[in-house]
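User: quick one, fold this
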Amino acid sequence: MDRILREERNYILGMVKKIRAAGCNVLLIQKSILRDAVTELSLHYLAKAKILVVKDVEGDEIEFITKTLNCLPIANIEHFRTDKLGYADLVEEVSVGEGKVVKITGIKDMGRTATVLVRGSNQLVIDEAERSLHDALCVIRCLVNKRFMIAGGGAPEIEMSMQLAAWAKELQGMESYCIKEFAEALEVIPYTLAENAGLNPISIVTELRNRHTRGEKNAGINVRKGRGTETGDQRGVNGSRTKFLRNLKRRPMSQNHRKPSNLGQRE
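Assistant:
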């Protein structure tokens, strides 16, 4: 038994010496399914070597930290080298409310990342705040990538539906049928918006059609007023990239439908 303990101690000391020789003084250890992945003896020797240990770090956090520090995670002690380390001026544990977090500042070669600390009274509030923040950041990203906006509230879908329906009347055969069906499928979006808002979808879609016929191309659903209004005046706008990607995923027309030969000639 003494021999096993002695060999374990020597093995741990060898690992600590390699870590120390590489110049590492802060060690982030990923969370493991093994309870004894980090033993008390190893923590003791690391503390004596003046190496700060942060254990049970989640895998996605490890990935984020490596991107921030511009370094690579090390899976094997034999690969522990100076050129694989990240560098920062200060790593400290600070109190935030009733909990504690590890704060890394003064990163030498910082990657293109940012940290946002989300707090809440319970986990449900935190999760909802995180989702809202993620949606807001995605909207900003879409606006940066494609810097113009279009009307919301189902206005583009109604306008495209009417334009396509008028175009379908000029065609014949299968092409006319396909375009007409696609035009009707676009009306599902404002119909669903009205239905989810507790409004009468049939009357709302009919009202929007009438408004667009009169030339009000930005007329969309105003949930607060319960009717169709100019969405541009009410700040009811969407990023064009967001609108395009969301509608593309819905795929109103089946992939099995034949694409009309001259569909690309008309905007």
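User: anything notable?
Assistant: The chain is about 45% helix and 15% strand.
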